[in-house]
Design brief:
Elements (H helix, E strand, L loop, with lengths): L16 E2 L3 E8 L10 E9 L3 E6 L8 E8 L2 E15 L4 E8 L2 H27 L5 H20 L1
Antiparallel strand pairs: 1-3, 2-3, 2-5, 3-4, 4-7, 5-6, 6-7
Helix pairs in contact: 1-2
């Protein structure tokens, strides 16, 4: 029986959450003799999973390079480290799709919390529109956690 070839678009084992979070990255360690054109850049996530994230960039990033990723959220900047798993040219666009794996569990957990805070913020804005009145962020947070936290948790673990 022939081995099934893995689709390059389906490399990750985890469920992907389509979400667009802005971030900055910097190459902090090159793992190859190939040179990087740039060591810094800005992008937005295309999706996030428990193991990593996917984003687009105009620069080629070397496989196995380690990135420091800074994700601003509200008035804080969260920093995580990730390793480039693949960098493929998007034939339809003039950019590369870069998949990275988080370096450790704490980095993955940090990004998961940022995603959850982002979703709660979106929910807060939606509830204010639905209700036609102000609702506090803590109230919206409690409501979101009561309604969605178990579903959110199952998607990751």
């Amino acid at each position: 029986m022939a081995a099934r070839k893995q689709d390059p678009q389906e490399r990750r084992q985890s469920i992907r959450h389509p979400i667009s979070l802005p971030f900055e990255y910097q190459v902090v360690k090159k793992r190859s003799c190939l040179s990087q054109k740039s060591t810094k850049g800005k992008s937005r996530t295309l999706n996030i999973s428990r193991g990593g994230l996917l984003f687009a960039t105009r620069e080629v990033l070397t496989k196995n390079a380690v990135l420091k990723i800074k994700i601003p959220f509200r008035n804080k900047v969260y920093t995580v480290h990730a390793k480039v798993v693949h960098c493929t040219k998007d034939s339809r666009e003039n950019h590369y799709l870069v998949g990275v794996n988080f370096q450790d569990v704490s980095d993955a957990f940090r990004v998961r919390l940022i995603e959850q805070m982002y979703l709660i913020g979106e929910y807060w804005q939606l509830r204010k529109q639905q209700l036609g009145r102000e609702i506090s962020l803590p109230e919206a947070s409690r409501e979101w956690l009561r309604r969605y936290s178990q579903k959110f948790q199952k998607l990751y673990w």
